[in-house]
Fold these 3 entries.
Entry 1:
Amino acid sequence: MRKEKNISPRTDLAIEAREIVQEQDEKESSLDGIEVTEDQGAEYKLTRVHITTKKGSHTMGKPVGTYVTIEAQKLKENDVECHERLIGVLAKELAELANLKRHDTVLVIGLGNWNITPDALGPKVVSKVLVTRHLQEALPDTIMETVRPVAAISPGVMGITGMETGEIVKGIVDRLRPKLLIAIDALAARKTSRINATIQLSDTGLAPGAGVGNQRKMLNKETLGIPVIAIGVPTVVDAATLVNDTMDCMLREMKVQAEKNSPFYEMLRAMEHEEKYGLITELLHPYMENMFVTPKEVDAVVDRLAGIIANAVNIAMHPGISMADINRYQS
Amino acid sequence: MRKEKNISPRTDLAIEAREIVQEQDEKESSLDGIEVTEDQGAEYKLTRVHITTKKGSHTMGKPVGTYVTIEAQKLKENDVECHERLIGVLAKELAELANLKRHDTVLVIGLGNWNITPDALGPKVVSKVLVTRHLQEALPDTIMETVRPVAAISPGVMGITGMETGEIVKGIVDRLRPKLLIAIDALAARKTSRINATIQLSDTGLAPGAGVGNQRKMLNKETLGIPVIAIGVPTVVDAATLVNDTMDCMLREMKVQAEKNSPFYEMLRAMEHEEKYGLITELLHPYMENMFVTPKEVDAVVDRLAGIIANAVNIAMHPGISMADINRYQS
Amino acid sequence: MRKEKNISPRTDLAIEAREIVQEQDEKESSLDGIEVTEDQGAEYKLTRVHITTKKGSHTMGKPVGTYVTIEAQKLKENDVECHERLIGVLAKELAELANLKRHDTVLVIGLGNWNITPDALGPKVVSKVLVTRHLQEALPDTIMETVRPVAAISPGVMGITGMETGEIVKGIVDRLRPKLLIAIDALAARKTSRINATIQLSDTGLAPGAGVGNQRKMLNKETLGIPVIAIGVPTVVDAATLVNDTMDCMLREMKVQAEKNSPFYEMLRAMEHEEKYGLITELLHPYMENMFVTPKEVDAVVDRLAGIIANAVNIAMHPGISMADINRYQS
Amino acid sequence: MRKEKNISPRTDLAIEAREIVQEQDEKESSLDGIEVTEDQGAEYKLTRVHITTKKGSHTMGKPVGTYVTIEAQKLKENDVECHERLIGVLAKELAELANLKRHDTVLVIGLGNWNITPDALGPKVVSKVLVTRHLQEALPDTIMETVRPVAAISPGVMGITGMETGEIVKGIVDRLRPKLLIAIDALAARKTSRINATIQLSDTGLAPGAGVGNQRKMLNKETLGIPVIAIGVPTVVDAATLVNDTMDCMLREMKVQAEKNSPFYEMLRAMEHEEKYGLITELLHPYMENMFVTPKEVDAVVDRLAGIIANAVNIAMHPGISMADINRYQS
């Protein structure tokens, strides 16, 4: 879970960044360098956002590359059969993005703090991934043909280790020399409704502080020398986002009822364009700075999400593991 | 954590119930049957609310009896020395309310769901209370003189057991026949600033659904046949309370800036008297119904609060345990 | 996990009690009142011991009734498919022993200490049992037709609660009035090879201290007024049993090599009949009194065993749950 | 917890290695290159073993260097006051071995598997160590003067990560460039009585497979380029060690009673010199290969040991932390 001091509602989701761009500027040219395709299924919506140019990257505040999002309210629920189908979708997208050769070694990194439930997604996935790299010499070739060499670690957060996470990962990557890094993390979103209902895959690495001057070491091809796929789920929103969302609803409601062109309507309209989110943040500060909003059953939901992602990673990585093996290789 | 479908911000705290009464009705007679004394220390504020008559009970929506509240922002922080002083204050208040004879047996009940961090306060306290009732025959008299017979259990919540908690407690009380029940629970508050910063003791039992027709079995002298002391801490607020608190701040801010007697000021004033909380709740429903607001470090804070309460219970109950033994009898 | 001060290796397993009887006395009449049928499958061995008379009960040191044992070394391993077949076998035996009417309420009790991994079997099963009793009024009849009213609780051990477990259970049973109690517990065995490889079902209740004067309250039809089915797995052996088992192996080895009728052979033979186990226990005392022997991966094994038993309970109890639903109703 | 396939009882403790040397060879010259000083206090025994030459290293099967052992049966018990005194002793020895300059950075590594209680000592210590390295820029100089830059991580075991632990540590050390590595690990001992009652400090690094051809990467000055202090506690013995210990007791007992010069006595004597341990291991194999012996309350004991070591590390490392701060900086 990466946080920043920023007065606009921060989002790690490319689909939300695009919504913000569209809200702020209705000209078509504003989306130059950004290609979007959507695929609305019965159970989920799959969106592919391709940022193709520097201009697009600047507009979106995100690096050039591909962002695939799976949205499904059922991700929050305990619907075993739907989750199995989503595992299949996710595994397919991941295998495509990864584009690995048969014997390439992969390192899976679980980011986040295992002591804080909504930030524990990454470490939980890592604990469920089938790790095989150390077995290469011990197992017979016929078995090893069915698995790819996979290593995995959850390095912890800086407050726990005293070290920048990027430094730890860089140190390990330099010794292990894998062909691909897969990093799993909880994300920030700006819509309460997306909590635990969205999975984003991207091939651009993790850019925790892009655009806001955060000094944290990025995990991407430039810094690590290997491709990085990030898999993330927004698991909380901060208190200000919740208030903001609610006030938006209220204003919409009031606008409907207020007469157009009345001074009150004007005020409300004006207010939307002012830094409403900034005002809220300021008011919530200081005593609510550390508050976050999360569903009551967050422990169970994060556990299930971790299972979905880990199953997808196992299927996408190991040639011998298929949909029939779901949950079989999880401890 | 007891919840209800109610459109006014629900509170388990007598001090908040009184604030609401005062806000709604400024006549002095409105507080008939309610006596309040306050004691403002450097580190904490101690408030005693005595509801002395049926009228007072009806006004407050709480049973006749005594409610002692300790408020201290430091309860949230990791301030070992301040917490030791608060343990002393709490132990003294508890011993007074309990008013036990030397060899009276006490049963401590930890209410709430141990799988949901902010609801796990009661079970955590129970795990730290020094349990001695089963040692009565094994230990020599000289040692037994230093301890009171104390039993303790966390029965779980109805969603876990399939049984009304009150039924389980009643069954155990009927067989064990203790002289006092001490019940520990997480509470609902209506001010975000009170989360994890307030401990309430009361001698009126627990009345989960008082006034809103909730059918849950009460734990009090009428239902159990023995006195019941409730110890509680508000550990979360619901999302609607957070939004409400924030909007109150915003309105206050805007009122300061708006010209008095302008139509806008009037609208804001009017809005305060409308069912703002109800409107918010309606808007948040359905997708935020299960959202709650909690501090990031809730696990650590609830652990520390459980330690404070358990130490106070141990000192108040056992003649041989004093302030010098803090943390010594916790596993 | 029930323990006793006893110099002969203590067993909760009827199949082991019978082995001891056979070892000590080779006359056929010694097994009067004890009927045994065995069913050796490819993956497991199913043994039914019926103690039919008082004489049989006295010989075996166990109450009159039925004891069904499933033995399978694969219970220790992570063999998902074999475990699914064993769930089916267990569910069938349990349904038969339970012999319930369609709407009878069942209470499931998880005995043992959740803080000690090998003693946590009962509480772990309870956390995975589908609890439905509290839904009777909330759910539509068509759904309720598919489930039986089931309640469940793990009362904890006396060292944690200060109360005799039997007292707590009696208190709850008296208020809830279920038609059947199912109690799950870790057992003591006298063969190291049976650890985590044996499940015993019995309809005789739990008789923790039968025959050794232990005063603990029994959980059976006499004390509770309802039938009691016990489900148990031996999860540890004490250190003395391990030493004893090993020395038996050594003696057998040495006997093979020693000439018959030599004084040495005689000594070894004699030694077997002496109180070897008692001697070992004495030697191990005091510094090894609290030592127990357990497999390295005990956490994972107990988790899987709990899953097997909980699935079997769910299938045996709820008409609408079948083998196709394995793991689906576990949190 | 490092294990090996070896038929002689394996020990990580220098004091046990010396006992073995003394048992096997009573000549004085056998201890050439090994200096031992002992300090018997009322509550604990402090032994310093210095291996000063290659010959001594070969005799002991351990690298040249210093091994400090604190033995105290009270380490197993819940004796807060004694533990505080032992923290003081341990902190003093650690500070001396570490011999750091004022601002040297230290990396603390918790070895072992957090999923297996007796192997979780290292990770538990790490979770209680005060980590400060990341605060160097954020905090004012006056506060930073009271703390040393300390980082800490628990990398997990190879079965979990797929990577050699030494590789991970090497990668991190190469990037972080600390001046000292402190590695905490559970150890193997060959006497059941030493379980959880002994803490060993050494400045020789960790040599998991010394002498038995184990290929695991060592953590020492040669491999990492910085000094390594290892802190360890034996938390389990394997089943064979338990049986061996018990049989030694039995033989001693029987020798006392047997007439000297009888053939039986001769046999017992002979047996001692045979590969008794090897025989036991063989007999226990295969079904007990993975069994280990541990005290019932192992969770609580390992927690307390971790607290003792973490407090000692905090006091030895940070100039501003003293005995008055025990437990204050642990989460």
Entry 2:
Amino acid sequence: MSTEIPYKIYLEESEMPKQWYNVRADMKKKPAPLLNPATKQPVTSEELEAVFCKELVKQELDDTTPYIDIPQEILNFYRMYRPSPLVRAYCLEKKLGTPAKIYYKFEGNNTSGSHKLNSAIAQAYYAKQQGLKGVTTETGAGQWGTALSMACAYLDLDCQVYMVKVSYEQKPFRREVMRTYGANVTPSPSTKTAVGRKILEEFPNTNGSLGCAISEAVEAATTQEGYRYVLGSVLSQVLLHQSVIGLETKIAMDKYDIHPDIIIGCAGGGSNLGGLISPFMGEKLRGEADYRFIAVEPASCPSFTRGVYAYDFCDTGKVCPLQKMYTLGSGFMPAPNHAGGLRYHGMSATLSELYDQGLMEAVSVEQTSVFAAAEQFARVEGILPAPESSHAIKVAIDEALRCKETGEEKTILFGLTGTGYFDMYAYEKFNDGKMSDYIPTDEELQKSIETLPKV
Amino acid sequence: MSTEIPYKIYLEESEMPKQWYNVRADMKKKPAPLLNPATKQPVTSEELEAVFCKELVKQELDDTTPYIDIPQEILNFYRMYRPSPLVRAYCLEKKLGTPAKIYYKFEGNNTSGSHKLNSAIAQAYYAKQQGLKGVTTETGAGQWGTALSMACAYLDLDCQVYMVKVSYEQKPFRREVMRTYGANVTPSPSTKTAVGRKILEEFPNTNGSLGCAISEAVEAATTQEGYRYVLGSVLSQVLLHQSVIGLETKIAMDKYDIHPDIIIGCAGGGSNLGGLISPFMGEKLRGEADYRFIAVEPASCPSFTRGVYAYDFCDTGKVCPLQKMYTLGSGFMPAPNHAGGLRYHGMSATLSELYDQGLMEAVSVEQTSVFAAAEQFARVEGILPAPESSHAIKVAIDEALRCKETGEEKTILFGLTGTGYFDMYAYEKFNDGKMSDYIPTDEELQKSIETLPKV
């Protein structure tokens, strides 16, 4: 066991990044513009500013500025839970008997339990700067809602969260964390919004859906004075904020002269993967270095591996702008797998374009194999991972075992986005041998892809 | 806001302590010896070795060796989740408007969610070294059981946990974390042991108790070939292992030339408080420095503040040795408050002796005020604290507000032992305004103190 590289690399505060990195600036072919769903023309700042904060709209539309200063108040907040450790998985390597060197960037050491806090504080900060009273959002599994609640509590900003009804009822702990941070949590669909009332009238027994919760949150933002809507993934602004993950990783690796051969991340909307790979992808785009990038998605929701690259709605309610992305169709209903954060029909436009250009690979994995990898990881590395993050673990282990076969001493880096402390129902199912896999049929995918809008 | 002291101080791996510190070695008047409950004579190594691992018995009885080497394999495990950060609570200070400087040593950044892992790995290691097949233990709230499960998974050691039945049923998530780490978790009382069957016969509807679970775990250890019993608090060996908390804190403070005036910790069995204060208390005992130490206990279970200093049973089942300590009587049934880790009738013998010598203070606080402090802390410092840890937060805030009145710039250090992610039922009660306080009457205490054994 090498003693040169510590188990965990923590940057000094003085070494922490002071700017976010915007990977779009280094892309020759940029992601396609967002379109107004009514006119099919590129959306304007003015249109977006009715829904989103002004400064965030600016960041969303800026595909030329490579570095953007992180405001001091956000840096202060980051210092409460960052830098996150870059961990050398010595114990996992030993257990696998692989010559590969495995590293993971662990984003779970904060109460939201995931990387979501990196963008939550940024979005809340710009809302506060704009003089707003509060923000609205939706949450499914609850990581994003929790992160936003924490950020809003810190900034004394009102936080209204529409939580998918089935999660609200089945994940009371997440709900209570949000309430402890002062958020107003409403099960969706609710009678608070016109869209919610309409859905309840049509489907009085519905469990709710992320698409419906988004529509309610957007309505709440646009009908209340002094509110805007915020979103935890997919958008380019979110990838920008999440670049702090990759920047810290790169600084830490450069410090110890570590060059990753393979960089792996789970991909739902793409915020974590995009954030982790951004600075490395920048080097690849500028021809300074080469890396293999692997996006890992659940077999039950395979946007990259079985979707199409086309304009689609970001939300089921079809109120948000159209985005060109790898998508299964906004009507796609993913099976109720346990990685709630990866159950999204679409994908970040930036990552979609990079994937389309062949700069990144993607694989899909089944959930029982993901939980087996999660358990193996937990037992030797000590951390109980989130189901989402475990998708990356599964593929990192696969790659490390491949190195064992070939004898190659590759360096593997993956993103460990969060902890699974609020996912124990899923682990219970796995421990009891009652977890099943689900892969959509070609017919099912064809049917939902047919729902794509004509552009 | 000073920029000299970082938000979080992480030691380099090379700076981490390589020895534990045994505060008993510097005490002129030592803690009283453990007694055999039958003979009332000091217990011998041989007697203890029937229940506990050999090396741990040696540590338990050693009150003269000040420093004990931490074995390399334990150091390796520590490196997976240690050093824990020493955090400067800049945001809390600002919110309170206090001139006091507040620091906390945060032990919650690991999957067990608390400091318990520090001793769990040590005890599991010595069991492995002795060639044992496994260990048995009891758990109430679940932190200790989780920590031990993690340590045993790492060392490939069988782990049998007797979990108080009411917790087993009400805290299914904790149970599943333990199962994910491969532990065998049994609701107590169970039909697996003679003592369990006897209790079930007498009280078929019992919810179980910590005392009963201890008795089952001890029976399981002594009736199975190759097993020993391990305990997560109270014992001197546990304080020894937990000294890593205080040692890291002291190294970090010395590095930045910080001198704490007041050191605060919650006290149930005393493992966290003892671990945190040990090296500082050592300086005080040797006359090298002075500090105010404050033990914080729940008003519902006030061992220090309303108990007596006497020999008592450590367990309700009365199978363990007698220990001289501050106690409410082993028959004391604490009210069902939400800080499960502090619901213990007795206290560490070492801390009891230090308190009796006037070297340490103690206060008791009511749980609604504790949760109010927890919420205030969470909203500005980002971390959702465990109910146990929040007792220390409450008193740290009280002391900081006292400084605000007097204008004194005191330096306050407290132990933040863990996170409250598995305590959201309690937070829900608090959020709903349904939490109540309970303080035992003098009559109740008198009655349970009468159950003390005659020595």
Entry 3:
Amino acid sequence: MFEAAEVGRSVSKKEYERIEPDLQLRLLEAQREAAAAGIPVILIVAGVEGAGKGGVVNRLHTWLDTRGIETSAFWDRTDEESERPPFWRFVRRLPPRGSMAIFFGSWYSEPIVERAFGELGSGRFEKRLDQIAAFERMLVADGALIVKLWFHLPRKEQRKRLKKKDDRTRMPFVRRFAKRYSAFQEASETAIRKTDQGECPWHIVEATDRRYRDLATGYMLLRALRQRLDAEEGVDEPVRHTEVAVPEVATASRTILDHVDLTQSLELDVYDRELAALQDKLSRLSWKAWEQGHTTVAVFEGWDAAGKGGAIRRVTRAIDARVYRVIQVAAPTDEELAHHYLWRFWRQLPRAGQIAIYDRSWYGRVLVERVEGLTQRDDWMRAYGEINDFEESLCENGITLMKFWLHVSPEEQLARFEERQRDPTKRWKITDEDWRNREKRGEYEVAVNEMVTRTSTSHAPWTIVAGEDKRFARAQVVRAFVDRLSEDL
Amino acid sequence: MFEAAEVGRSVSKKEYERIEPDLQLRLLEAQREAAAAGIPVILIVAGVEGAGKGGVVNRLHTWLDTRGIETSAFWDRTDEESERPPFWRFVRRLPPRGSMAIFFGSWYSEPIVERAFGELGSGRFEKRLDQIAAFERMLVADGALIVKLWFHLPRKEQRKRLKKKDDRTRMPFVRRFAKRYSAFQEASETAIRKTDQGECPWHIVEATDRRYRDLATGYMLLRALRQRLDAEEGVDEPVRHTEVAVPEVATASRTILDHVDLTQSLELDVYDRELAALQDKLSRLSWKAWEQGHTTVAVFEGWDAAGKGGAIRRVTRAIDARVYRVIQVAAPTDEELAHHYLWRFWRQLPRAGQIAIYDRSWYGRVLVERVEGLTQRDDWMRAYGEINDFEESLCENGITLMKFWLHVSPEEQLARFEERQRDPTKRWKITDEDWRNREKRGEYEVAVNEMVTRTSTSHAPWTIVAGEDKRFARAQVVRAFVDRLSEDL
């Protein structure tokens, strides 16, 4: 989940100075409009120690009109507070209509800290999170706008920062926290996943570069305000309007995909040898899974011409046809359209011991349907949580779930398109739609990045496949099957 | 929670025959409109064994156009079904847009049965319920209408029915279930409370009288359909419109309040003696609570002139003024109006060891605000769940929570109003608003009944006080304090 916040986004000083004045102006305008509309805004500033949450809040104070803002840091509970239920101290700091509250820490801190230190069992932790989710839904239903920002630092960066001697790192608890980086990551991931609701989603901010961190925060707040204001005014296509409102950081930023090393390749003879060995293992594992009644579901998504079909064939060649099924997902049928969008995937779930391979999947909801505007923003935003719930129900049932994104560069994609066009035996593979999709690469990259971030869970992480070299990609996919099944069986 | 379904509602044969033709006509019309509007309707028929769920469904089949209905009974899982996650078998029976599905049992049966037989711990049970709630929210967000009916029988009635020899009672599991009546009640109550959402609330149907049971089912389904259809059409005041749509069963039915024995009274000398003894105990208990840091919250609601003030004074006289506080809840201040409606009650929560007495409370949301139309239907429907969550957070924090409804007959109320009007020292107590409220007694009775049903939880049940005789009522209230605190300290 946090990989997408470790891709090294940064903004140069010059770029920052170019962007900042306009951002501030628009933030002030949005703040004024939200106040006039009587919207209570709650900005939750959370994240790892050392990520500079204090710096972010100071920056917001210089950007915004502080007369409409109350900032609260929730440290140790006071006597007054510990004598009441946990939410009491937050309730008394809730902003009235037309005001903004900035919460440092908030209702997430205590459960996450207690979980990371092992004071809270996983059942009770999840119950607390459910209560938080219900509490937030209650506030949103009453008209509140809740903007939740999670500031992330890679472990190495955190260590480096905490070595510096300053007032903050001298606080004893900061060091105690840093020692439990992994436990905190795990608890944080669970907390974010369980409370990432359509009405108030989480935004993960890469905090390594201060300028990027501050600009991203400003834009996320601005976007949330504008989306809400547009919705109040009944703007026809809020999706378009607000997506366009934050181009600067989007272009300045890198996505998780930029981190894939596309130079990886395999020589033919190495490939042949490796693939044969892997397929042999996969064949044996598939029979073992069948005998044990252990079910497998694999999802393939990726750019057009990234090699999904070829990779799937390398997998299925190793498996008996009675044991697997490839489900080609195209436009839904009439009957499917008459149901919930997950229905058609639910009904294809394999029986015990079988392997189902979805060639494209339920992720269409947050990819093509999002980019093409086929689905309203509210609906696809809600889909992340729905998909996570759906996948959790598979995993709870003991199903092995694998998800692959096949990645190629736009240049390699173009080469493959042109090759297909030239080759009469492959020409049918390429359509006008492929060319149209290609033009929207930028929008798709944003969608893919968000998809991977919001749905890479510990039980069902995404595997990003380096698809520039077909052989490398195919071996990577088959190896992932072998590794995962060896682990789960 | 189930008390409201043990009040002995019944409908005579003559009345039934008068009502049924019109009900059927309106049901058919609503069914047609819902089909035309493309709404998928899910009717969940759940409840205790022997309540006649089969009979209800048969009746619905005669009333409705069965071409648009698919009925599914979820008994033992098939091989096919047990090889997939639990929701799979329900998903494949979900109705397409414009159709209706009647689910016998549904996703609630398994968790409740497993809980009642002790196969499921309370933590895992609650997790299953949370998953169900999320699943239902997902369907509703996609446009589904979910109508959830729980058919209730008192234990005695169930026993009587299961003694009869017929095909159904010969089923072995029916008898096994009946033996665990209490365990089923408890699990069912938890399930209903945790999944009683504003978007798809539960309706509890008293199933003792078959005619009442069938008519109530028909009207609840009709009301749910009409509310949804009105909302689609953007009818201005759906609250009014749809409340008026089901007058017949409402008038034919009795509420939980009709069950209060208002003839109970106390002689003056008995009262004096009892009250003094109770107050002495309460005094000692209040100091003990203070020493232990044990907090108490008491809520008083009731009819105008039912004697709330007098009862509260009998309690507070026993307690040191430093330890208790009476919170008079009147119209909210400007500041309070600028927050969530629960905010003003949250902030009045007492410190450890203190006793807070709310003279009127957060229940105004589902009483006066509902009846006077100050709050939209969606908002007050959602409030039951919000209030249950709020009260659960108090109880989890170890707070003793007591809730009193002071009940008097309309005749006694009138006598007290007139007495107040005559007495110059009391005239200030009575306002035009009191007279106006009195005229809406019927609407208030419906609201009170629903409030008690939906918010009588095992940790915070309502106490209905027989207020016709002031002495009896006061002694009952003080005794409730003594009993509850003795238990909790």
